[in-house]
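Now for one specimen:
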Amino acid sequence: MKPKFLILSLIFSVLIFSCKNKEESTKLDISKLPKASEAQIEELVGKFIDATEGSTIEIAEGYYEMPTQLILDNVNNVTIKGAGMYNTVISFKTMTTGGEGMKIAGNKITLEGFTVTDAPGDDIKTQKCDGLTFRAINTTWTNGEKSKNGTYGIYPVQCKNVLVEKCEVSNSRDAGIYVGQSENIIVRDNYVHENVAGIEIENSDNAEVYNNRTENNTGGILIFNLPGLPKAAGSRTRVFKNLIKNNNHENFAITENGNAVSMIPPGSGVVILAGNEVEVFDNQIIDNKTMGVAIASYHITELPIPTHPGWSPYSTNIYVHDNIFERAMAVPDLTKNMGKLIATKCFKAPDIIYDGILDEKKGKDPLKNPMGVFVNEKAKDLRFSRLIIPADGGIMSIKVANDVSTFKGEYLVKTDVSMVK
């Protein structure tokens, strides 16, 4: 079944009683830092240009307003170290050429103890690195208009053996921590807030996402497989022991070119889109006003479904269990189609929602669970919703089933990240 949904145009007249989330401010305060001189800035640029294998680039305490990118180009075994997460601040607010603030390529790279702000594109982009550590890094944007912020805060793409830990990431107009087309990944002990997507694992293999605090984003944690990328798809992601709270921020992503993140409704805890082998467990999923966990096919985006070798639009082998759900006293989001659908068909925010779209090559009977979606939650009042979408995709004909017992069972996802240090 490949439903094409009608545009949702519903007029609601509701009285909403809700509490506005208080945005917790960062510890960053540049007013207390010495401003780097022109000579110090030139010296820093030179350190990146002149780095050789085994170098340590030390960046002293201070506020560095950079006129140009900092680029490390295919140099191995390099450490870039500041004087502390909030003591060394590198700003690209006045940069006039280039997109990324810091652009890194090379193997065995460590970035530790500094802040990057206000790059036109991504604050820190690393590409094709094998052995990569982000530790105690802060990235953010300080613009008043968030839709003009950069895309990603911490952005490893096409990398192997990636560790992102003890970082703070905020105000990205796409994903704060985005790990794309990579393998062997740990994302842990981070504070991620006020982004569109807090943490996103996309088209990546063998990832563990745990002990993070994702708060006041549009969506807390996203596991996506998107079409048309050099790495066709990813699998084996475990999301556990995270605090996923109050992710009710407005969605300020740009909408051009079918950007899937721009479709995420405010109030989304965990979203699995065309995911394969994903396990979500032992998380606190609290006060996300639209949905706790969503399991969806790419069809739900209403975008064209391309044919790419190795990519599937369906979510398969998903296991959600042993989470703690608490619900916001608020109406589900009404700004995005998915939120409107939930508001009109589920009425209240579901803890778990499954779009129920099947790959008919695997089976046509949803009661036989051909996609291998399993739910084992202990909550007695669990709100589970499965959409029953007619072939014509008509919104008025969509029904909701609450048959969680159909999906009892387990699928333990096996990951091995012992090589990530």
In short: The chain has a mean pLDDT of 92. The chain is about 5% helix and 35% strand. Helices lie at 38-50, 337-345.
